[in-house]
TrEMBL record, chains A, B:
This is GntR family transcriptional regulator. InterPro entries: GntR_C, TF_FadR/GntR_C, Tscrpt_reg_HTH_GntR, WH-like_DNA-bd_sf, WH_DNA-bd_sf. One of its GO terms (molecular function) is DNA binding. CDD domains: WHTH_GntR. SMART domains: FCD, HTH_GNTR. The lineage of its organism: Bacteria, Pseudomonadati, Pseudomonadota, Betaproteobacteria, Nitrosomonadales. Keywords: DNA-binding, Transcription, Transcription regulation. Residues 8-75 form the HTH gntR-type domain.
Length: 232, 232
DNA sequence: CGATGCAATGTTGTATACAAGCAGCGCATG
DNA sequence: CATGCGCTGCTTGTATACAACATTGCATCG
């Protein structure tokens, strides 16, 4: 965020910086960047840039065409829908396990955090809902003692975070998110796996449908904006 | 496979070589290796070794402790069981989609490959069952036009390949594998998602239970062997 | 005029040199 | 004898130089 000119940046920082540039649409899908460019930009050598790009490639943010350049990967709607489907399958699994083994204490703790009554207060405090939302979904898997499942959810989130950010920040959805999360947690507390699975499915499906249209418009906007603005 | 001493190896090859050493128990969990060692061993510089290790780290084969060394990661039974559970969820999803959209032609093609009548012939020909098996499971997702799902299954397979290899090569299971795969395909051809999902679930569950005991004994054997053999 | 070869340029791939940091050990000192 | 401090060796982290290769534009030839 803040630029410290003197400090030499580490690979992990470069990774974050590039990812931010992508997820904030500063670098647009299809753009081609070279390792040298990025190295100059961040004032480091190509080595850490390369490592960061390698990781970003594994995670699907960019694709490196050998000897040619590095391209920001496009995300198409079909791909996103697929990820949402996968999320449903995995999170239903997480919820099922949570019903079996997530301690009451943790569930109640989460319920406090997602009590719809808290919504306005949180908003007033300027809580970053996208972060809180991610913590909820990952937290179910972690609460159920399924670290690998949590890992997979994290990696999926990496891919769709761009969209979820747009999604979750839409005002008209934020209260609904509280309600839906709260409902899921209630069912978990009651150890009713069937209802909990259904609730989480509905919740994700709603997100998906919303995200779909939202993405289209957001991308279109950005595209227009880019086209109008610069010729870098 | 065959060693060409003159040819300089590329990063991808180094990656494969190291992974093979791990999955074939040539490098044992807990072992510490240094980049320099590997570079010397493969007669390349540290750079490609580093890149290969980075990738292996992402995929969970090794863990690099900064400034200290690179350790072959242990796989514990609990973790493996979790992966099998995840596979059930994901492959049920794949099968469901396959019932909807996998073309008859592809299904029939797969059924030919997995016709139990072919089993003895395949064995005689020395077919690598672990490869064929992986192609089946991935193939369902691909046939259903779900490339991202296929990707995720691939990455899970990377993690449990060691075990699956032991599993699938056990003679007494190979014919059963043909039968179970064939059954799943039959249900898909009939577009009976319910039965297909149940069949794939049973199939993976059986694998899991078998793998569990198998891994324990295999690991124990190797451990004993190592303990007896060397003190490197 | 068009196609083809060829060289120049730019990009990633690899090797090597140097920096930084941590662990373990030995030494000195209380 | 115990303990704290610093030093050395080893390992990863980063910078840079060089190699290989793909693309592209131009020139030359049919």
């Amino acid at each position: 965020m803040t630029k410290l000119p003197g400090k030499r940046k580490t690979t992990a920082e470069i990774y974050q910086l590039i990812r931010n540039k992508i997820t904030s649409f500063e670098m647009f899908p299809g753009d081609r960047v070279t390792e040298h460019e990025l190295a100059d930009l961040f004032e480091v050598s190509r080595t850490p840039v390369r490592e960061a790009l390698k990781r970003l490639e594994v995670e699907g943010f960019v694709s490196v065409r050998p000897k040619h350049g590095c391209f920001i990967r496009d995300f198409d709607i079909v791909e996103l829908a697929e990820y949402y489907d996968i999320r449903i399958a995995l999170e239903q699994l997480a919820v099922e396990h949570a019903c079996e083994s997530m301690p009451d204490k943790l569930v109640k703790q989460a319920m406090e955090a997602w009590d719809p009554a808290r919504h306005d207060d949180d908003m007033a405090r300027g809580i970053d809902l996208s972060v809180k939302d991610e913590a909820f979904h990952i937290g179910l898997a972690e609460g159920a003692q399924k670290p690998m499942l949590a890992d997979m959810l994290r990696s999926i989130n990496n891919r769709i975070r761009i969209i979820r950010r747009l999604d979750i920040n839409a005002d008209n959805r934020s209260l609904r998110t509280y309600r839906e999360h709260f409902e899921v947690l209630q069912h978990i507390l009651n150890r009713d796996a069937g209802k909990a699975k259904l609730a989480i499915k509905r919740h994700i499906l709603r997100s998906r449908d919303f995200a779909k249209t939202l993405t289209l418009t957001a991308l279109a906007q950005k595209k227009a904006q880019i086209r109008a603005g610069n010729t870098r």
